[in-house]
Predict the structure.
Amino acid sequence: MDRIAITGGARLNGEIPIGGAKNSAIKLMAASLLTDEPVRLTNMPRLADTRLLGRLMQRLGTQIVERDDGPDGQETTLHTPEVVSTIAPYDLVRQMRASFNVLGPLIARTGQAKVSLPGGCAIGARPVDLHLMALEALGARIDLHEGYVYAQAPRGLKGAEIEFPFSSVGATEHAMMAAALAEGTTVLRRAAQEPELDDLAECLNAMGAKIHRDPTANLPTIVIEGVGKLHGVTHRVVPDRIEMGTYAVAAAMAGGEVKLTGGRPEHIRPLIDALEEAGVTVNELNDGMVVARNGARLKPVNIETDVYPAFATDLQAQFMALMTMADGESVIKETVFENRFMHVAELRRFGADISVSGNEATVHGVEKLEGAPVMATDLRASVGLVIAALAAKGETVVDRVYHLDRGFERLEEKLSACGANVRRLKGDGPIED
Ligand code: EPZ
């Protein structure tokens, strides 16, 4: 199993390109099942998660062609002329819960699907009741047996009015994909507002769907007028706001000056505000931003995660790592997932002083961290450990790096190019520089 070794203390100076968003790319891939024509996705990240979903979709009948030197960089074309299987088995869904998102497109396109329930994960129980509620409202018959969802809609899906009890990214996306081909109009209330969702809507609209937000409604609302057929498209994946936010925090932690290119600062406004409050300089550009910190100690900042446009839960671990070295006490409140403090115990191994009560962590900043062997627990938690290691004295080895590989493309390369001392240790073998 690969590990990553980091010797802390080097400042970061240089440029980091920001790739396409993982959490958009995987939904766009699933959405390609809605048409029998090719869907070409550009600005595609190459990640363990996109590879895994690709493997599942190949079993369903999708032909996948990847190209790394397209006019807009890496691209993936997905083409499902015919759905040859409507089954998403446990062995694949368990490795990546977002594979569950093929359920809606499969029912919408073929009228049936058998998809494994994803189960919980390190950050919480993460039920899918709202996904199923939405599909039932659209007329699918849902039965649960032996860990699988059996869904049937032999006469097709029908538009419906659905009010979610709270905002869920996955359930909103799922309902949107299924409703795109339903008969009649669907209204989704308390719909999620994350940029990845708008990216999906934009792609579906370019495929012939009729989806718009209703800005006059009291609750965040999406209206979908079902169409009979969707066609192929070329679509550019929205830049990854979490990747950009992560490297912004890394630069703030290590000090120096880093230009992040290809990202959209307006998608991480609360993080930028928090960084500035901590004393970090952020200059926004048309296609990215420059993050700089020179000398002075960071000021403590309190944050509270919530659904978009609030502070992203996917940036919470990184920001907590940053606050471990602030000059004072900060309070970090997590409101989206019930168990997203797994990184606290690992951060303590660096000498961080953090106490947790319920969904609040109080971080007492320390003057120095010390490198330590630590373990990645989930994707964003692991990158929080990498951030701590960048400023820690001595060497840190992060174990279970496969978590990082799920969502950060060429992380060691991008950080090393800015002067960080980061290298991957392959399996149990020798160090690979
Ligand atoms: C998406 O997860 C992202 N994943 C997550 O990123 C991200 O943290 C999350 O949105 C919040 O922004 C993908 O896009 C693949 P939710 P999702 O449904 O869709 C509860 C990462 O690191 N809930 O908005 O699963 C749920 O348990 C990942 O890249 C139900 O109770 O998030 C959670 O507490 C991690 N029932 C809350 O809602 C449901 O049916 C919000 O979850 C669905 C969700």
User: Anything to note?
Assistant: The longest strand covers residues 63-70. Residues 23, 26, 98, 124, 126-131, 168-171, 192, 313-314, 336-337, 379-380, 407 surround EPZ (CB under 6 Å).
